[in-house]
Amino acid sequence: MTHHPGSGPPCVVVFGVSGAGKSTVSRLLAGRLGLPFAEADDFHPPGNIRKMTSGVPLDDRDRRSWLEAVGRWLGDREADGSGGVMACSALRRRYRDTLRSACPPVLFLHLTADRALLAERLRGRTGHFMPEELLDSQLATLEPLQPDERGATVNAAPVTEEVVRAAAEAVAAQ
């Protein structure tokens, strides 16, 4: 695995809209790279989960403390040299900027897929608080990686093992 000179294991955020496979790909990528894994959804306060469960999109005020908590986890992994992989929507540039401010060398992997595939995956989910009805608001909110952001785009449509392989290759190429 290649990373920046003088740095420890990478801190990676796998991001994208619901249904892109963030949690599955992140967990498997962390295992493949031998890094700790965390799910950003676990950092949401109960009020945020209630809103999303009832079909109400979060606003930036709702997201602030959540993104700060996710950023702290990443910053702690960078500080202790363990690295880590976080599954996190991080849909807007400013959200990624918040994470980057806590962990400057963070690498973002953007999982992409077409709307039909995303909707199909959301319909097949059980036990998750994100309803399919919020997919369009997430797609409207999504700001793809900008040229000055450290990261890569990974096609999330192939079978999971191919997506994980492509994600690992993207990390190694950074």
Summarize the SSE layout with pairings.
Elements: E1 11-15, H1 22-33, E2 37-39, H2 46-53, H3 60-80, E3 84-87, H4 93-102, E4 107-112, H5 115-123, H6 135-141, E5 151-155, H7 160-173
Parallel strand pairs: 1-3, 1-4, 2-3, 4-5
Helix pairs in contact: 1-7, 3-4
Describe this structure in words.
The chain is an alpha/beta fold and 174 residues long. It is 47% helix and 13% strand. It has seven helices and five strands. Strands 2-3-1-4-5 form a five-stranded parallel beta sheet, sandwiched between helices. α3 runs parallel beside α4 (93-102). The longest helix is centred in the middle third of the chain and has 21 residues, at 60-80. The model is unreliable at 1-6 (pLDDT under 50).
Global structural class: alpha/beta
| Distance from first to last alpha carbon | 9 Å
How are the strands of the largest sheet arranged? 2-3-1-4-5
Q: Helices and strands, in N-to-C order?
A: EHEHHEHEHHEH
Poorly predicted regions: 1-6
The helical percent reads 40-55%
On the 0-100 scale, what is the average pLDDT? 90
Q: What is the rounded Rg?
A: 15 Å
Would you count the extended β strands for me? 5
Sheet-strand content, in percent, reads 5-15%
Count of discrete alpha- or pi-helical segments spanning 4 or more residues:
7
Tell me about the largest β-sheet: 5 strands, parallel
Task: Tell me the overall shape.
Answer: globular
